[in-house]
């Protein structure tokens, strides 16, 4: 290779990072190597199985040829990247490195052993970074003779396309290390966000609510997984429903992360995993990679089930209990051409529509003295967003509900019927996501701005969770959570102090107190 680099003083500037080692040439290691070599750094790539590293190099050369042909990178960048990528056959070759990034198996003891080995090889000034997604950086650093030089550098797959990287401070990480890693990431064209060393860091922590709450809704038999996915795509704007996402990621990957974060937080109810996912892992029903997950792959085409054609008769009476819902529900009635009953109580031929925030329909029926057979709930959070959620109570006349569902569909408003639940589907999932995000910033894990940026780039949510909370109204999200907690008694819904205080004061969830 021809490297002859003398030991340097403590590395404090990007210009002092000349050679970067990567240990592990799987999907993550290969992606990191591509990104860093394209940015002009010398890269040493090592894998304990030499053939894997050779195959990664060959694949990257093909990738650079294709990117050059498509004019995604210049011929100069492609040539530089090829000349800067070097496969090494022994770990000892890392002795010339200024930074080593490990991207090996997600097992604490294996990572600790690697860092112990690197301690005997690299110079003391060399920085060691772990690409762990769910393990403690501090615990990994415990395998190093110099834990002050160890930090987290969490990339996302596929690395070249996922434009955010988490820079994680271990408990003993030296102050100069994170800014240097930030400079490196920014030089690659990606965005660096800072996080404290806490379970799940930012993205894996913030993403818990989407899948764990969906699994809980499925467990409670509120709706089946296809309906939950339809609602979260159509009504909330997610690219993939939670069950589609778990199938894509693979439950063998996502369920252990759920369990890891839950146990690392000493059984914090907000992160509680679900037996449904555990059972599927045990059965090997993991998702796309096994051909069968919540869905079958390739998909089995099924004719959609349409509600029976029931002629709608009568009017809709709108409960005045939730003033925030009335405008949306009035707009809905206009769109589906239904007369509104403005009586103090619903007429005999009217269907009573309630729109509770965080409560179920049965509670509203009992409190308002309504006829349960003719009472239906509508989630006003998404009443005019292209997909409706209609909630039954155990006594609702199903034909009546199907008639309303058909009427909505005939006017371009597809609707899903679900069973009684405190918080519908969208309310439950979004309130959980926003609440967890609030608690992340309450703990000082990262800044509000870094949280929203990381989630937008790392999870592709329609909005950053805190900005989403502002859009829906912090006070309303707080009401949903408090009502769900009262209705269920489940501490998973207890509101974060960050949310409570900003809702009380009318502040943005992105607001940071002056110090």
Automatic annotation (TrEMBL):
Q: Which Pfam families match?
A: 3HCDH, 3HCDH_N
SUPFAM superfamilies xrefs: 6-phosphogluconate dehydrogenase C-terminal domain-like (SSF48179), NAD(P)-binding Rossmann-fold domains (SSF51735)
**What keywords is this UniProt entry annotated with?**
Oxidoreductase
Q: Does the keyword Phosphoprotein apply?
A: no
Location of the 3-hydroxyacyl-CoA dehydrogenase NAD binding domain: 20-197
Gene Ontology MF term list: NAD+ binding; oxidoreductase activity, acting on the CH-OH group of donors, NAD or NADP as acceptor
The answer to keyword Oxidoreductase applying to this record is: yes
Q: Where is the 3-hydroxyacyl-CoA dehydrogenase C-terminal domain?
A: 200-297, 423-506
Supply one GO BP term: fatty acid metabolic process
Q: Which PANTHER family does its entry note?
A: 3-HYDROXYACYL-COA DEHYDROGENASE FAMILY PROTEIN, 3-HYDROXYBUTYRYL-COA DEHYDROGENASE
**Protein name, as recorded:** 3-hydroxyacyl-CoA dehydrogenase
Q: Record the organism.
A: Undibacterium oligocarboniphilum
């Amino acid at each position: 290779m021809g490297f002859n680099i003398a030991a340097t003083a403590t590395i404090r500037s990007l210009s002092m990072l000349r050679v970067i080692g990567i240990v592990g040439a799987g999907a993550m290691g290969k992606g990191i190597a591509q990104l860093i070599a394209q940015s002009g750094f010398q890269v040493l790539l090592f894998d304990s199985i030499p053939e894997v590293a050779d195959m990664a190099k060959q694949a990257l050369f093909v990738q650079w040829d294709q990117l050059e042909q498509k004019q995604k990178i210049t011929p100069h960048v492609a040539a530089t990247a090829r000349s800067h990528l070097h496969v090494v056959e022994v770990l000892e070759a890392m002795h010339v490195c200024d930074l080593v990034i490990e991207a090996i198996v997600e097992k604490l003891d294996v990572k600790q052993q690697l860092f112990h080995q690197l301690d005997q090889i690299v110079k003391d000034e060399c920085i060691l970074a772990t690409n762990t997604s769910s393990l403690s950086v501090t615990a990994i650093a415990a395998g190093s003779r110099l834990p002050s030089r160890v930090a987290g550098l969490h990339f996302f797959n596929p690395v070249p396309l996922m434009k955010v990287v988490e820079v994680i401070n271990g408990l003993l990480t030296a102050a100069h290390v994170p800014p240097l890693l930030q400079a490196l990431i920014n030089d690659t064209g990606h965005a660096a966000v800072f996080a404290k060393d806490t379970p799940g860091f930012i993205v894996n922590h913030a993403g818990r609510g989407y899948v764990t709450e969906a699994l809980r809704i499925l467990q409670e038999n509120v709706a089946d997984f296809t309906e939950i996915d339809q609602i979260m795509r159509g009504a909330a704007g997610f690219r993939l429903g939670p069950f589609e996402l778990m199938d894509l990621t693979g439950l063998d990957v996502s369920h252990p992360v759920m369990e890891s974060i839950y146990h690392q937080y000493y059984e914090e109810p907000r992160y509680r995993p679900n037996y449904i996912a555990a059972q599927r892992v045990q059965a090997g029903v993991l998702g796309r990679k096994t051909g069968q997950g919540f869905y079958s792959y390739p998909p089995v085409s099924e004719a959609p089930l349409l509600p029976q054609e029931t002629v709608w008769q009568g009017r809709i009476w709108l409960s005045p209990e939730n003033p925030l819902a009335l405008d949306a529900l009035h707009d809905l009635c206009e769109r589906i051409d239904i007369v509104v009953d403005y009586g103090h109580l619903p007429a005999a031929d009217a269907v009573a529509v309630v729109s509770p925030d965080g409560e179920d329909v049965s509670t509203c029926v009992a409190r308002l003295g309504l006829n349960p057979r003719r009472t239906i709930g509508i989630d006003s959070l998404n009443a005019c967003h292209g997909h409706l959620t209609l909630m039954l109570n155990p006594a609702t006349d199903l034909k009546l509900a199907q008639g309303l569902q058909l009427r909505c569909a005939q006017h371009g408003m597809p609707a899903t019927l679900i069973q009684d639940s405190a918080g519908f589907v969208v309310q439950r999932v979004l309130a959980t996501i926003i609440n967890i995000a609030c608690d992340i910033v309450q703990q000082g894990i990262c800044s509000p701005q870094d949280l929203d940026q990381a989630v937008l780039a790392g999870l592709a949510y329609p909005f950053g969770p805190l900005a989403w909370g502002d859009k829906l109204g912090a006070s309303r999200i707080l009401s949903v959570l408090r009502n769900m907690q009262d209705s269920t008694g489940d501490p998973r819904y207890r509101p974060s102090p960050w949310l409570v205080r900003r809702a009380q004061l009318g502040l943005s969830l992105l607001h940071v107190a002056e110090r």
